[in-house]
Amino acid sequence: xxxxxxxxxxxxxxxxxxxxxxxxxxxxxxxxxxxxxxxxxxxxxxxxxxxxxxxxxxxxxxxxxxxxxxxxxxxxxxxxxxxxxxxxxxxxxxxxxxxxxxxxxxxxxxxxxxxxxxxxxxxxxxxxxxxxxxxxxxxxxxxxxxxxxxxxxxxxxxxxxxxxxxxxxxxxxxxxxxxxxxxxxxxxxxxxxxxxxxxxxxxxxxxxxxxxxxxxxxxxxxxxxxxxxxxxxxxxxxxxxxxxxxxxxxxxxxxxxxxxxxxxxxxxxx
Length: 270
Hints:
It is a single chain. The protein has eleven helices and no strands. The protein is mainly α. It has helices spanning 5-32, 50-57, 59-92, 98-110, 113-128, 137-163, 166-173, 178-206, 210-215, 223-230, 237-262. Residues 264-270 have low confidence and may be disordered. Helix 2 (50-57) packs across helix 11, helix 3 (59-92) packs antiparallel against helix 4 (98-110) and helix 3 crosses helix 10 (223-230). The protein has one domain: MetI-like (MetI-like fold, Orthogonal Bundle), CATH 1.10.3720.
């Protein structure tokens, strides 16, 4: 389709406006984390790193950061295992209900977070509760894993479809066992997809707040929950900007790396 010069400029303007709506507020948060003025006067009258030091000294923020890291790591491990296994089952085998299984795996990330949160809250109260599994870090990990599995599944499934089974068949024809084929052929081809899926899963878990609100028990506070709890405390505003800046960086970097690894130029290498 050929566009006129006017149409091209209008599309560029629309894209620029859309990106500005998304990223300008994030940049403002990053800038204000170094703003020496407590009222966030604009432009900043002077710059300081005092708020960063105070944020690090804040025990609540540090504990929330560590909780988010633990929840993200555990949810990512679960997602890598389950997502990879389901991707292999769906791609390599033909069985009744295969498309339904694929839909059920992908569905959690399509549902509104509040729906998933309510469902998990009901499950822990009516099913897991009587079994002795109370709300805490474990329930947060399980809640995050429900949607983290999707990104790993999609990455691994796409990579399996891309390279097919020809190289694995060639490895078997040359006398390699199933384990040797997986170790020397399949895993190297999947390595970048697994790493990219793991990074995306960690990023999703790290900044999740809706599902966490419904699954976290008393005393369990992730970094997004800590920010929300302190959002309306004026004396905490500078520190919140710093914590939000950290949250932005920790979320953006894994997503950027995952995008680079998942691109066609990444191939099967890591």
